[in-house]
Specification:
With 207 residues, the protein is α+β, with helices and mostly antiparallel strands. It has helices spanning 2-15, 76-79, 83-97, 112-126, 129-132, 155-164, 187-190, and strands spanning 104-107, 149-153, 170-172, 180-183.
Length: 207
């Protein structure tokens, strides 16, 4: 009987699937599991840390209601974005709509309190401040808090921006965050700058 149990155990080990990195990863990226963009429509709730209950935090802190787009002026996470960034996003969104692509805002401007909460949760999830820093910045360094960054979804929208975004000054900044977009005003002429592997490589995060 014991021999049968052992044999079955070996069989299960051989057939168990090998964990893989998030589907948003691109070839050549770090193979560590990615922290997905909040609430992409094609991902399960367990992969949506920015949508979970946050107690006193609400839309005035940058919590984004379901279905918000870059055109929603009534949503603080959108309305409080840098004016030039928002203008570029809206121009791009109108042109992307001609291709049947909609830009959903998964996260935009955030209050310092919201950013601190996300960082606390990231430290708990990843087990250390150093690992959490690959995904979530501090309230003093985050471009979300200053209104200079937006997380766009779903995947079709991020793919569209990867191909066309530079014409609007919209650039991916980190290889491990395909949803994270910032404004680079000279990108239309010079192209988007080379991406950092993750936020820990960004000099702005070391202030």
């Amino acid at each position: 009987m014991a021999a049968i149990v052992v044999a079955l155990g070996h069989s299960l080990l051989k057939t168990s699937p090998t964990p893989s990195s998030d589907s948003a990863a691109t070839p050549g990226q770090d193979s560590s599991p990615l922290l997905p963009a909040p609430s992409l429509s094609d991902r399960p709730p367990s992969h949506a840390p920015h949508r979970e209950s946050r107690g006193a935090l609400d839309e005035t802190d940058g919590v984004v209601p379901d279905g918000a787009t870059v055109l929603d002026d009534a949503v603080p996470a959108v309305a409080n974005l840098d004016a030039e960034l928002l203008d570029g996003l809206r121009q791009a969104a109108r042109d992307a709509a001609d291709d049947g692509v909609t830009f959903t805002v998964n996260s935009g401007w955030r209050s310092a309190a919201y950013q601190e909460e996300l960082l606390r949760k990231a430290v708990a999830q990843y087990g250390s401040e150093a690992e959490a820093a690959r995904w979530v910045a501090t309230a003093t360094t985050s471009p979300h808090v200053s209104g200079d960054a937006v997380d766009i979804g779903p995947d079709r929208a991020t793919e569209w921006l990867s191909e066309h975004g530079s014409a609007y000054g919209l650039c991916r900044i980190y290889r491990n965050e395909p949803w994270h977009v910032e404004l680079r005003t000279d990108a239309a002429d010079r192209g988007c700058p080379r991406m950092y592997a993750d936020p820990t490589q960004d000099p702005r995060m070391r202030q």
